C-alpha cells in the first residue's frame, strides 16, 4: 500500500473534540492491550504515530489521524481499549460512553476494525460489540492480532476456532502480526472494500 503521509489530526475526550467528518473514517477498537495502536502504526508504516504501551489501559482518549494515499485521504481513529480490569466501574462507564458517542453518530465512519488477540477467547464484549455495530450498519473487520505469538500449527488451529466462534464472513477476518509483518496488506484491502462500498452508496438508498 502506498502511503504518502500520516499525521495526527485531533485528540478528543468527547464529541465536541471530534474533527469535522471530512474523509472516510476507519475506527480501531478492542480490548486494552490487544494491539490497536501498534496495528494502526504498522498500517501506515509510522512507528510512533499512535502511542503504544506495554502498560494496558493507557489510551483514554480518542485519537484521530489523517492518512494520505494517492488521491485518497482516510482518517484512522484509535479508540480507547475496553475491559481493563484495574479501573473503577465509573471509569469504565465513562469509556463506554465515549466510545458509543463516537460510534453512534459518525456519518463518515466506513468500517470498524475490531481486534482480538489470537490467544484469547471472545468475551461478551466482542460478541455484543459486533452485534451492536452490525445493527447500526457499520461493517466490521475482525483483525486477529499477535499471531506471531503461536507456532504455525497451533496458530492455524486457533484461527479456525476463532473464525468458527464468530458471526462474520470469512473475508472480514484477517490474521495479523505487527511484529512479523503479517496480514497488513490484506487488512488494507478489506478496509478499501469497506470504504468503496460506503462511499459509492447514495445517501438514504
Ligand atoms: P491500549 O491503548 O492500552 O488499549 O492498548 P493497544 O490495544 O493500543 O495495544 P498496543 O498497540 O499499545 O500494544 C500492546 C502491547 O502489545 C505492546 O507491548 C505491543 O508491542 C504488543 N504488540 C502489539 N502488536 C503485537 C504483535 O503483533 N506481536 C507481538 N508479539 N506483540 C504485539
Ligand atoms: Mg492504544
How would you describe this structure to a colleague?
The structure is a single chain. This protein has 205 residues and is an alpha/beta fold. The chain has one domain: 3-Layer(aba) Sandwich (Rossmann fold), CATH 3.40.50. It contains five helices and seven strands, in the order E-E-H-E-E-H-E-H-E-H-E-H. The protein has helices at 36-44, 89-103, 124-135, 152-165, 184-200; strands at 5-12, 25-30, 62-69, 72-78, 109-117, 140-145, 173-175. A seven-stranded mixed β-sheet has the order 1-3-4-2-5-6-7, with helices on both faces. The longest helix is centred in the last third of the chain and has 17 residues, at 184-200. It is globular and about 45 Å long. The two termini are 31 Å apart. The mean pLDDT is 91. Residues 36-37, 59, 78 line the site of magnesium ion.
Write out the distinct hetero groups bound to the structure. Answer: guanosine-5'-triphosphate, magnesium ion
In CATH terms, what is the architecture? 3-Layer(aba) Sandwich
First CA to last CA: what distance? 31 Å
The percent of residues in helical segments reads: 25-40%
- Main sheet makeup: 7 strands, mixed
What's the CATH class label?
Alpha Beta
Assembly form of the protein: single chain
CATH superfamily: P-loop containing nucleotide triphosphate hydrolases
Helix-strand pattern? EEHEEHEHEHEH
According to DSSP, the number of beta strands is 7
Sum up the structure in keywords.
binds guanosine-5'-triphosphate, 5 helices, seven-stranded mixed β-sheet, binds magnesium ion, globular, Rossmann fold, 7 strands, alpha/beta, 33% helix, 205 residues
